[in-house]
């Protein structure tokens, strides 16, 4: 079960990586929210940083807290990104996208000098795949794309993928910040995550997927009385 105190402690520990003058990717979700709040507190006390939000939700949060933002198209360097995860394994491989922000999250993480994952202990897993893997697809042809996603997951060792379009109010597909749909792929386990990542990336209609391989270099897992930092 997710633990709010663990999330908060992980977010607080990530503040040790923040330095004056940095441009910082701001993740999305309830754990990243704690980080943005800590950042806002330090900014109020004189810290000078700029944020690059990974979603409209985080943009609104940061603006409401007075965190200065920079347009992603104007950024020449992102020193650090701090973001949550739905699952993290012992190789710092992640499943992300529970909050439907995976496309911008991956673009920003990939452009950063360092990606730090902050998470409560429930996110730490031996093998990825218990959490349904989000795959962002174009609305055009999404049922065709879903079949190709199924084939790719089977090839990557998933025994029985179950794929559902993520829906919201009125049972309509939710639309991401990028104007796309999300396929939630229940896998049970993804034995070959790097292979799954490569195969999914190759499917026309797949805009991005929630497997983050070789992106996170630091993982901070919160506990009730602090946090443990793992470097990769
Ligand atoms: C959003 C994400 C989030 O980082 C992930 O869903 C974890 O969220 P939370 O911190 O609320 O558990 O990937 O797209």
Written description of the protein model:
The protein is globular, with a radius of gyration of 17 Å. The strands form three sheets. The protein has a six-stranded mixed beta sheet, sandwiched between helices. Strands 8-9-7-10 form a four-stranded antiparallel beta sheet. It is of the alpha/beta class and 232 residues long. The chain starts with a helix and ends with a strand. The longest helix is centred in the first third of the chain and has 15 residues, at 30-44. Helix 1 crosses helix 2, helix 2 runs parallel beside helix 3 (56-65) and helix 5 packs antiparallel against helix 6 (193-201). It has helices at residues 4-14, 30-44, 56-65, 102-110, 142-155, 193-201; strands at residues 23-26, 50-53, 80-83, 87-88, 94-95, 115-119, 133-137, 162-165, 181-186, 206-209, 211-212, 218-223, 226-231. It binds ribulose-5-phosphate (5RP). Ribulose-5-phosphate binds next to helix 2 and helix 4.
List keywords for this structure.
13 strands, 29% helix, 23% strand, binds ribulose-5-phosphate
Question: What secondary-structure arrangement, pairings included, does this model have?
Answer:
Layout: H1 4-14, E1 23-26, H2 30-44, E2 50-53, H3 56-65, E3 80-83, E4 87-88, E5 94-95, H4 102-110, E6 115-119, E7 133-137, H5 142-155, E8 162-165, E9 181-186, H6 193-201, E10 206-209, E11 211-212, E12 218-223, E13 226-231
Parallel strand pairs: 1-2, 1-3, 3-6, 6-12
Antiparallel strand pairs: 4-5, 5-11, 7-9, 7-10, 8-9, 12-13
Helix pairs in contact: 1-2, 2-3, 5-6
Ribulose-5-phosphate binds next to helix 2 and helix 4.
């Amino acid at each position: 079960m997710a633990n709010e105190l663990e999330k908060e402690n992980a977010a607080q520990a990530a503040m040790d990586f923040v330095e004056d003058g940095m441009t910082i990717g701001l993740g999305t979700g309830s754990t990243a929210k704690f980080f943005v709040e800590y950042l806002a507190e330090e900014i109020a006390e004189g810290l000078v940083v700029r944020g690059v939000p990974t979603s409209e939700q985080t943009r609104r949060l940061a603006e409401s807290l007075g965190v200065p933002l920079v347009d992603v198209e104007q950024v020449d360097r992102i020193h650090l990104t701090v973001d949550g995860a739905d699952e993290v394994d012992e190789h710092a491989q992640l499943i992300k996208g529970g909050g439907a922000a995976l496309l911008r999250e991956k673009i920003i993480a990939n452009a950063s000098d360092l990606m730090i994952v902050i998470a409560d202990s429930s996110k730490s897993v031996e093998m990825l795949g218990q959490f349904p893997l989000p795959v962002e697809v174009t609305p055009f042809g999404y049922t065709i794309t879903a079949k190709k996603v199924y084939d790719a997951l089977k090839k990557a060792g998933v025994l029985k993928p179950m794929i559902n379009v993520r829906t919201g109010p009125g049972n309509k597909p939710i639309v991401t910040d990028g104007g796309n749909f999300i396929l939630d792929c229940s896998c049970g386990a993804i034995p070959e995550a790097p292979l799954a990542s490569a195969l999914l990336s190759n499917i026309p209609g797949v805009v991005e997927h929630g497997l983050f391989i070789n992106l996170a270099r630091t993982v901070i897992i919160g506990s009730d009385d602090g946090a443990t930092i793992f470097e990769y």
